[in-house]
């Protein structure tokens, strides 16, 4: 059974919950997980007409607007979720993320300061919320000092995460090392995290993302195989397995099938490899196979999804130049 088939079988056999399906917040979350954000917004909006004080509904509608990059609506709903349940660390954290999207889009120092305040409050509400501490550490690392960036505070958050969860601690330290271009240290941190054999898929995917960036086919393949043992049905493994094969110049036809399966089954979500990236890798593998027309088609598909994708644009230019040289020689 190949990777794509294994994923589809796993998905078909996944258990459902009839009782949960009657809860509109659960329905909306399921629609969100499938990437059907418009349907989830409709579900939530209808439910809010009957129950206008359900924090969960505002939270999931905010998450949908965040994925759709409608940051004004994402912020408004996140603020309502926090207003309805002010003691929720997670709702504060996601409010910070909504502010972050808006701050980046509008280049707003005011919203950036709200990001900091939301993340700090999320940590204050629940010091054991590792994700909140991770988001706060990332903010301290990446934000300019004028809105609260502070490397020293970032490292304190990393230390706190280490005490709470060794795997998450290695990942947080790797994030810090990557930010400061200490890539050998980051590599060691990811290896330490995976050596602990975490039971959740996230660490394997974070390591896979790093190894993709580094072009390390062997370590990427190992991270994928380890992740498959934890979550064999996770569609993201199709993408990373395909990347590992292309980097190693092995089984390129199989890699194309993996990318096609990923494009068919993966939702377009910010925490998933983008469909544009999958098309870009398809372009690379077809170049290696000598299928220039197929490569150009894949690069154009990548640019249709992400017009600013430089690697795909450069590849198309390269292919065009090569074609013109062949024409001139003839």
Describe this structure as you would to a colleague.
78% of the residues lie in helices and 0% in strands. The protein has 330 residues and is mainly alpha-helical. Among the domains are: 68 residues, Serine Threonine Protein Phosphatase 5, Tetratricopeptide repeat, CATH 1.25.40; 57 residues, no CATH class. The C terminus is likely disordered.
Considering the protein shown, what is the CATH homologous superfamily of the domain at 19-86?
Tetratricopeptide repeat domain
- Helical residue percent? over 70%
- Span of the ends, CA to CA: 46 Å
Share in β-strands? under 5%
Average pLDDT, all residues: 92
What's the SSE pattern?
Answer: HHHHHHHHHHHHHHHHHHH
Number of strands: 0
Low-confidence region ranges: 5-20, 323-330
CATH fold label of the domain at 19-86? Serine Threonine Protein Phosphatase 5, Tetratricopeptide repeat
Structural class: mainly alpha
CATH class of the domain at 19-86: Mainly Alpha
Largest sheet: none
Radius of gyration from the CA trace?
A: 22 Å
Q: What attributes does this structure have?
A:
Serine Threonine Protein Phosphatase 5, Tetratricopeptide repeat; 330 residues; mainly alpha; disordered C terminus; single chain
What's the structural blueprint in terms of helices and strands?
Elements: H1 3-13, H2 18-21, H3 24-33, H4 37-50, H5 55-67, H6 71-84, H7 89-106, H8 109-125, H9 130-142, H10 151-164, H11 166-179, H12 183-195, H13 202-214, H14 217-230, H15 236-248, H16 252-265, H17 275-289, H18 292-305, H19 310-329
How would you briefly describe this protein structure?
Helix content is 78%, strand content 0%. With 330 residues, it is mostly helical.
């Amino acid at each position: 059974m190949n990777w794509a088939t294994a994923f589809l079988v796993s998905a078909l056999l996944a258990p459902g919950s009839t009782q949960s399906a009657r809860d509109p917040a659960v329905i909306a979350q399921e629609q969100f997980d499938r990437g059907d954000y418009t349907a989830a917004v409709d579900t939530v909006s209808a439910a809010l007409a009957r129950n206008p004080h359900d924090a969960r509904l505002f939270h999931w509608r905010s998450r949908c607007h965040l994925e759709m990059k409608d940051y004004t609506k994402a912020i408004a709903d996140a603020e309502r979720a926090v207003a309805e349940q002010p003691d929720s660390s997670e709702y504060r954290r996601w409010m910070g993320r909504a502010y972050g999207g808006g701050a980046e889009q509008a280049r707003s120092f005011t919203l950036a300061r709200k990001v900091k305040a939301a993340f700090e409050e999320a940590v204050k509400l629940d010091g054991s919320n590792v994700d909140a501490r991770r988001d706060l550490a990332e903010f301290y690392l990446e934000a300019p000092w004028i809105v609260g960036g502070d490397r020293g505070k970032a490292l304190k958050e990393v230390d706190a995460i280490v005490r709470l969860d060794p795997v998450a601690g290695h990942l947080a330290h790797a994030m810090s090392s990557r930010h400061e271009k200490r890539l050998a240290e980051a590599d060691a941190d990811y290896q330490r995290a995976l050596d602990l054999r975490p039971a959740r898929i996230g660490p394997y995917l974070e390591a896979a993302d790093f190894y993709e960036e580094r072009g390390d086919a062997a370590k990427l393949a190992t991270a994928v195989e380890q992740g498959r043992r934890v979550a064999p049905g996770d569609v993201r493994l199709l993408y990373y397995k395909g990347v590992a094969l292309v980097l190693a110049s092995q089984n390129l036809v199989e890699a194309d099938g993996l990318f096609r399966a990923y494009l068919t089954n993966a939702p377009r979500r910010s925490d998933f490899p983008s469909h544009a990236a999958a098309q870009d890798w398809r372009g690379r593998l077809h170049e290696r196979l000598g299928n220039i027309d197929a490569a150009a088609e894949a690069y154009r598909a990548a640019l249709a999804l992400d017009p600013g994708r430089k690697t795909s644009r450069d590849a198309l230019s390269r292919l065009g130049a090569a074609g013109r040289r062949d024409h001139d020689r003839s």
